[in-house]
Amino acid sequence: MTVHHRLDSEQALRHLPGLPMTPAAALAELRGADASRARVAEILQQDAGVAARLQRVLESSFFATGESVDGLSAACRQLPVKSLERAVIASAVLGQFPGGRGGGLDRDGFWEHSVGVGVIARTLAESLGENAELAFTGGLLHDLGRIVLDVYFPREFLGVLRYQGRHDTWIRDAELAVLGFDHCRIGGRVARHWGLPEDLAEVIRCHHQPDGAGVRHAATLIVHLADVLARGLEFGDPGDDTIPLLSQVAMKRLGLNWEALRVGLQQVEGQLPEARRLVHATIGADASASA
Fold it and tell me: Which of the 8 DSSP states describes residue 271?
């Protein structure tokens, strides 16, 4: 008889570390009623590793500057608050997790898939006049729950992968069967635990259920489409080779058709090398757990 290692998701969260101290303090300052950009820069510069990683993110073409900035102080002055917040979140979360081969996931392949989703989502968002930074960050972090399971709960996640292999099923269905919940649910709760903004939390929580009543942001619909497309094009390794059904409701709500998706995908390929370099330069620097 197979023993499934079920998790109490609320109890599991109590044992999960928070975001690293420096990014967490910077985010708290950014969200304050009297936020000081100078103070944000001062906080970030207290940790050279955090500052260097964030600057790499800011100098990528995926955030508002997209060009060399003269230090974090200048970036903090130039960027809109929401742009800076999303860049801090992206660099902090990437720094929280190690690359390489995990207990169950090929983590480098996982982040390649995630960044591929981010690039596709950003391209679609630009074509629709939606927020490209939110779409990129949401795509990058959409499977947060899965990497959390692999890093912090490897025994339980290996049970998921064994079930998936035996039954040749979608990994999300294996999560539900073995754990009693899926990566969307645990990812959404991690997002809340880490104080991520609701728009990002919704993407993480709802990207496989874009037709749901709780979906309020276009980014959730966009990331759903981007995830399906990235899987179809075999960008990286999300944990299995199943391609979920693409929501026609999401397509309709966004006003997209297959020709628009085809044109968008033509623009993506040239952006992937930069996206991969960004991820591999930032993952694992603050990892506080070992597989």
Answer: G
Integer CA distances (angstroms), 284 to 38, 45, 50, 125, 204, in order: 27, 19, 12, 28, 20
Q: What does the pLDDT look like over 63-97, one tens digit per residue?
A: 765 555 667 888 888 888 888 899 999 999 998 88
The neighbouring-strand residues paired with 101 are: 106
Chain segment 211-254, per-residue pLDDT in tens: 987 899 999 999 999 999 999 888 889 888 888 889 999 999 99
SS3 101: strand
Report the length, in residues, of the chain: 291
Q: Could you tell me the domains of the chain?
A: 18-96 (no CATH), 100-281 (1.10.3210.10)
Contact residues for 138 (Cβ-Cβ < 8 A; gap 6+): 118, 121, 199, 200, 203, 204, 207, 219, 220, 222, 223
Is residue 17 within 8 A of residue 152, CB to CB? The reply is no
The CA–CA distances, whole Å, from 182 to 162, 177, 208, 251 equal 15, 9, 10, 24
* Bridge partners, residue 106, by sequence: 101
Centre a 10 Å sphere on the Cβ of residue 58 and count the other Cβ atoms it contains: 27
pTM of the prediction? 0.90
Residue 163: both structure tokens together: 């079930």
Distance CA 116, CA 76 (A): 27
Residue given tokens 């995830």 in the structure block: 227
Kindly state the tokens that stand for 39. Answer: 């103070």
Q: Using CA atoms, how far apart are residues 64 and 46, in angstroms rounded to an integer?
A: 23
